[in-house]
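Exercise (ungraded).
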Amino acid sequence: MLAEGDRVRVKLDWPETRGPCHIRTPHYLRGREGVVERRLGSFRNPEDLAFARPAEERDLYHVRFDLPAIWQEADASEIVVCELIEQTYLLEDETSAGAGDVIVVELFEHWLEKLA
Amino acid sequence: MDLPEDQPRAHHDLGGVSKFMCEPVDTSRHALTEFDRTVDALRGLLGAKAVMSVDELRRGIEAIPEADYHRLSYYQRWIRSIADNLMVHGVLTEAELRAALEAK
Amino acid sequence: MNVLEADSEKLLEAVLGLLKGKGVVTPEEITARIASTDSASPAQGARMVARAWTDPEYRALMLRDGTVAAEAMDIPMRGLPPLGVLENTDEVHNLVVCTLCSCYPRAVLGYPPFWFKSAAYRARAVRDPRGLIAEWGTTLPEGMQLRVVDSTADYRWMVLPRRPHGTEGWSVEQLAAIVREGDMIGVTIPSV
């Protein structure tokens, strides 16, 4: 069981490369480090529910991540220049989020590794 | 480490995908059609009757090939997933569905 | 041809015909379900917001347990996913998205709007959030933190916006009338 303030890492795993699956952990968060905000409760594992298999209850947490950091590490070849929306602008550091902006996501316990 | 951007991605998993970064959002109001409302109601009833779950609906939507996924409207994806799931559960068979479609 | 690739309208008609024949779902049930779903609208969420702006106890309840707060306003929540409420303050602004599908707090806001379901919204909200809300003309004050909430699993999230200046002394009905759908998702900010 994780507690508020625990530092966690989202598993660096790519089940979608191994065949049919249904996962609720977004691609952009794999391998990222965040902080547990709170436990939201226990819910049946959607990875099994989606295939009508018996599904265990798993703890679900609200986890907070630094938003700019997620995109700053993107490959330089992926830098996005938008010319279509009103005016040309470069997404500085790959994102329009400001310093201190965060993203908060519901994640199941089996996707989280507790950091020391 | 292997950064997420380098890994294969399921096409419904849209957070941060570069090709949509410059696409404007259509903020206007779109009224739902009778088709949309009917599909929505059908999904709700099948959920309430424990015939199929919302998780199975999502799995069926995610199974739609990428080009179709982006071409189909929201509720067009739903009816495709619903039909898929009803066959998976044996509520109706492919032969029955094909016959019903050909009878139109 | 794969039956699933049939025309969507024809597919719906075929499925409904078969389900009726098998006694799984009747046309009457569909009609009743549409009527009940149509009754949920942003006006429900707006009533909750207006009450929270005028009743500190209700505000505390809403932030603690959105489901109970909705039920307290006679909004049916039984069997629906839990509702979480995200509080906008002088320092923090919340924006809701579902990048994987289109999870939306339907019990309190009704059907999700077209834009919420679009690929552009789902892709940009987590990477270009300030550029995204600028499409609604929304700019956040200098120094305000943006919290993007990606609704990935079992909760549904709505935003409790800040009460705008210039509404002192207004009734809850007057207040509810200025709260829009977008204010409760975070793409817009209520104003008078």
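Further reading is listed at the end of the chapter. For now, observe: Residues 84-88 of chain A have pLDDT under 50 and may be disordered. The CA atoms of residues 41 and 60 of chain A lie 6 Å apart.
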